[in-house]
């Protein structure tokens, strides 16, 4: 787990603001769920034999009542729990999004931490393929707004439960016939979750899984039509995609469309965003049956790509830095600075480090320059006696200064906002 410190945190804020704007463009509204949920929610929702439940969850027993609790390893189950608990679908479907920390006890690697952050979007109560495509288009739009290149889209369909059952039987028979080639993890999953074997990263098993029965060949007419409609919409929007028949995702709740956005720039674990349809999860955790689809992206991984391959905005800096030579003048100075802030001016005031005076003018101007501010406001005793302030430029035309009357605050505030600082 790691800290996020300034100025790096400014990039996080920039991404979050961009995402909020994007979500509003598509009609998605924010939802915030607890970080801690009952352990059973994730066991039921994600699947008891998934890596997340078996190996990665931070779970504990509440000392007061013995309840088994877990730090959320992902957010979809909690969102679905909240939707069911509060009957949010009573009046129709909902488009929701979230941001926040998740927790998994996995091996730290590039762009992955045990406390990591996700941004996700969930559309609940909508059964049509157009909503699958809408979510994919939304993520694709995000990459364009971030200036990311080299992110490819992979699609697959997991069909419906009865189709997966037929494929599962064929897959188990195939794998049992080649049991000598399976590694320990595959043997363990063979009868509990054989579909996950197709997603193995073991290089010695790649040829075996490449020749395995494909779920795509077991899709019925409706499932195939749903998948085809998603593809048609993406084609019409000019979004490139490829079908990856081995794409199964890591949770058991998916059906029909699944997808991932992948890059080669982050090593072997190149997925930065993934999701799919989960039409049975709401009923599975105790709500009224309703279709749903969603995705989540890893914030750390996306920001790593942004820093390396796209332009990031500069960290925010104050418009002005207030130089205060005399501590006795602070009440008057801070009154003026508050008026500036109320008018939208970003102000950083010099403050004493040790509580014994405000420091020399030289040291204050040095800090003013380091702050990135465009101008310094110098509240000298003589100027304040005349009800005035000196505005000194720190960037363009550095050193140029002019005196302004505090009585006519609106005039020089306008000059600050228009960058006409003289």
TrEMBL record:
Q: What is its main location?
A: cytoplasm
User: Which reaction is catalysed here?
Assistant: tRNA(His) + L-histidine + ATP = L-histidyl-tRNA(His) + AMP + diphosphate + H(+)
**Family annotation (Pfam families):** HGTP_anticodon, tRNA-synt_His
According to the record, the signal peptide region is none
The protein's GO terms of the molecular function aspect are: ligase activity
Q: Which residues form a coiled coil?
A: none
Aminoacyl-transfer RNA synthetases class-II family profile domain residues are 15-325
**Domain of life assignment:** Bacteria
Report whether Aminoacyl-tRNA synthetase shows up as a keyword of the record: yes
Q: Which PROSITE patterns match?
A: AA_TRNA_LIGASE_II
According to its UniProt record, where is this protein located? Cytoplasm
Assigned EC number: 6.1.1.21
Q: Which UniProt keywords apply?
A: Aminoacyl-tRNA synthetase, ATP-binding, Cytoplasm, Ligase, Nucleotide-binding, Protein biosynthesis
Known partners and oligomeric status: Homodimer.
| Similarity section | Belongs to the class-II aminoacyl-tRNA synthetase family.
| PANTHER family assigned to the protein according to its UniProt record, in alphabetical order | HISTIDINE--TRNA LIGASE, MITOCHONDRIAL-RELATED, HISTIDYL-TRNA SYNTHETASE
Official protein name in the record:
Histidine--tRNA ligase
């Amino acid at each position: 787990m790691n800290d996020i410190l300034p100025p790096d945190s400014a990039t996080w804020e920039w991404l979050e603001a961009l995402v909020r704007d994007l979500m509003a463009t598509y009609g998605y509204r924010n939802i915030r769920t607890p970080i801690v949920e009952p352990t059973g929610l994730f066991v039921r929702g994600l699947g008891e034999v998934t890596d997340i439940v078996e190996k990665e969850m931070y779970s504990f027993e509440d000392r007061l009542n013995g309840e088994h609790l877990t730090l959320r390893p992902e957010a979809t189950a909690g969102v679905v729990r909240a939707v069911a608990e509060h009957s949010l679908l009573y009046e129709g479907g909902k488009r929701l999004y979230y941001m926040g920390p998740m927790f998994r006890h996995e091996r730290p690697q590039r762009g992955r931490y045990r406390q990591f952050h996700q941004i996700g979007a969930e559309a609940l109560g909508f059964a049509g393929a157009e909503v699958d495509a809408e979510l994919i288009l939304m993520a694709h739009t995000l990459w364009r707004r971030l200036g990311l290149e080299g992110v490819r889209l992979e699609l697959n369909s997991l069909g419906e439960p009865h189709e997966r059952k037929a494929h599962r039987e064929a897959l188990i028979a195939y794998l049992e016939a080649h049991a000598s080639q399976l590694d320990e993890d595959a043997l363990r999953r063979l009868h509990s979750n054989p579909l996950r074997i197709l997603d193995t990263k073991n290089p010695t098993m790649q040829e075996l899984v490449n020749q395995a029965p494909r779920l795509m060949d077991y899709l019925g007419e409706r499932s195939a039509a749903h998948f085809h409609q998603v593809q048609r919409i993406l084609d019409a929007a000019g979004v490139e995609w490829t079908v990856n028949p081995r794409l199964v995702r890591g949770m058991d709740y998916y059906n029909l469309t699944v997808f991932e956005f992948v890059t080669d720039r982050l090593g072997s674990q190149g997925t930065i965003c993934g999701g799919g349809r989960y039409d049975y999860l709401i009923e599975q955790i105790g709500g009224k049956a309703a279709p749903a689809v969603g995705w989540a992206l890893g914030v750390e991984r996306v920001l790593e790509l942004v820093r390396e391959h796209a332009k990031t905005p500069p960290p925010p800096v104050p418009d002005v830095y207030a130089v205060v030579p005399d501590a006795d003048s602070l009440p008057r100075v801070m009154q003026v600075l508050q008026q500036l802030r109320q008018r939208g001016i970003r102000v950083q005031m010099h403050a004493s480090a040790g509580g014994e005076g405000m420091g020399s003018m030289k040291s204050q101007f040095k800090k003013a320059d380091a702050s990135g501010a465009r101008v310094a406001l110098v509240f000298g005793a003589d100027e304040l006696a005349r009800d005035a302030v000196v505005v000194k430029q720190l960037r363009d035309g550095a050193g140029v200064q002019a005196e302004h009357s505090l009585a006519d605050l609106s005039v020089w505030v306008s000059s600050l906002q228009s960058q006409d600082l003289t």
